[in-house]
Each structure stands twice: as structure tokens, then as C-alpha cells.
Input
Amino acid sequence: GMYSISRVQIDHCYFKNASIGYAVYLYNLQYAHETTIRNTVIEECGGGISYRPYYRSYSKLTVDECQFLNNKGYEKRILEFASYRDNARNNDLFLEYTNNVIEGNYFSWSKNYVARLFHISQNDRYFRSTNGGQGCKFQNNYIANNKVTSLHSQHESQSCILHWHQSPTQYSTKDIISYNSFINNTAPSILYLANNGNPNPNNLKRVIVKHNSFSNPNADTELNAKDLRGVGVPVQATENYWGTTSEYVIETDKVDDKLDVATAEAVD
Output
């Protein structure tokens, strides 16, 4: 039961044709402090992994060397990683998503929400990190030929491949998005860095976006950081390949931070 499980391990599994819901749905595991999914294939399903721990737990999810292929979902995602709303008090929540292949997936959303292939979000109010200043990792993944679309016009511009929520924290943690390849994906934004609306820069983490390759001609923008405008939290987005070597094209077309002279730099 949810009160007694302390560790979950899924290894060398194959999920196919779970057309309605998520292939792996982990919810309300109050004491599952370590969850590992490795060497697993999720193919032609309605969703990938939903991981939503509850309160009073140290929760770490590791997804490594998995494949997510040709899944097609409605109001689902390849990965939903989020605390369970305001009940996740005192929750240390970490993600390591590494060495995975995500290819040929299509996800749509018609309600008043944003379509996202990946939804990474620590709880808005209570997230904290105590593991030496290290945040979440999204590294060495291959994300290609995927498409997301929102059928609700209000949120179409915010639809994206990877949605990364800037959560408040009392510690100086850093989330790392590095050594990933985003190739030929279709979405308004490929990487969307969101802010919870808290203007205090001391309560937000810093995101490092480094050594990634972005080449998505069907995307409106590769990196969207406009939600961080004015909060004074820079995003280190250096040494990436943006599909061009033109600095003008990168600044005007590939990176969207919507800055003006009165705001602090959102992307450096």
C-alpha cells in the first residue's frame, strides 16, 4: 500500500498499447523515497510516466536509458513530474532524467491548459532542496520528431516540448539541462522556462542550459524565457547550438526573453 512502499524499481520492462492512460502512474506514495525506471520501452501508449508524490517524503525519480516511441496522447504527457499541489509540504523532490530516447510522439490538449511533452514542476509553495545545493537534472537525452499542440487558442503560444517550472526555494539550488539534442520537433516553444509569479529573485532557482543542440525549424522559438522577465534570475544559456551560427538570428528568433531596457537580463 501507499504507506508501506519505500522503494519502486521498474527495469527492463516493455509497455505497449496502453492507449487510454499513462503506462506508469505513480501517485500518493508517501514513503517511496526512491523510484528508478531503467532500460524500459514505452511505445504507442496514451501517456508515459506520471509521478506525483504526496507530502512528508524525500522523493527522487530516476529515469535512465529508456525509450518513448510513437506515443499519442490526449491530455497526457511523456513525463509529468510534479508535487501534489499544496499538500507536498516539506517535500524534497528531485529528478534525474538521463540517456533517454524520445521520438515520434504526439500529444494534444483541448481544455484550458497548455500542451507539453514534458512537465517538470516542483510545488509552488513548499518545494525545498537540502542535498548540497543540487537541483534536478535533464541530461543527455535525444528528443526528436515529436509534436505538441494545444487546441485552446489562449494557451497555444505556451505549448512546448519541455516545460521547466522555476520554483521558489530557500536554498541556492541549480537545475541543469545539458547535453540534450532537440531535433525536428514541432511546437511553439521547445524549452519553456516558467516562473510561478514570485518576483523575489532570492526565492527562485537558477537554471543552467548548456551544451545542448537545438535544431527545430518548425518551432517558433527554441528557448522561451519571457516569464522570467524582471525577476532578476539569469539563465545561463551558453555553449548551446541553436541551428545557426548567426548571433542576430539567435537573439531575434531562437531565444525569446522579451526584454526591455528596464528589466534585468533573463538569459546570459
The longest helix spans residues 247-254.
